[in-house]
Every structure is written in C-alpha cells, then in structure tokens.
Amino acid sequence: MVGHPVSQQVVHAVADAESVPKTELTPLAKSIDPESLNTLFLSNPKTKKKFRFEYEGYIVVVEDQNSVTLSDSPECGLDKSGIE
Questions:
Q1: Where does residue 20 fall: left (phi above 0), alpha (psi -120 to 50 degrees), or beta otherwise?
Q2: Which of 37, 38, 55, 84 is deepest in the core (most CB within 10 A)?
Q3: What are phi and psi of 30, to 5 degrees?
Q4: Would 18 be classed as within a structural domain?
Q5: In whole numbers, what is the pLDDT of the chain averaged over residues?
Q6: Residue 64, Cβ density class (10 Å: 0-12 exposed, 13-18 middle, ≥19 buried)
Q7: Which pTM was predicted?
C-alpha cells in the first residue's frame, strides 16, 4: 500500500492478518490518533523513524513511511513513549 497514509496501511495490515473486513476492526483512533501518526511519518521524510503501539492485540511497528510490521509477541516490547 505504498503511497497510502500510514494509518490506512496499519488498518489494512491488521484486517489482512485477521482475515476480516476493515469495518470489523475497532477504530484505530481508539488506540492512537491516526492524523498524528500520519503527520509523524510525513514530516522530515529523510529522517529514519520507528514507532510502536498496540492495536487489536498486535504490536504494530511502523518504520519510515511504508513499513508496517505486526507482532503478537510481547517480546517485541513497548516502552512508554513508543518512539525510538
């Protein structure tokens, strides 16, 4: 989903992992502000970024603008900020 906002990439990835339509997921805004997530990855695109948060039982890791990884493992770890 290159070219789509990061928030949409997250929802799409989780829906695919769960094999459900996106409309069956909890709104992303219940976990994180989607616009802030998009803004974080659009600002200073040459700066490497990594952000982790929990959504629908997954640890979501977003790196740069087009890399969304899901983990259901607690070993992935979340610190308080979620930002590296």
A1: beta
A2: 37
A3: -75, -20
A4: yes
A5: 86
A6: middle
A7: 0.82
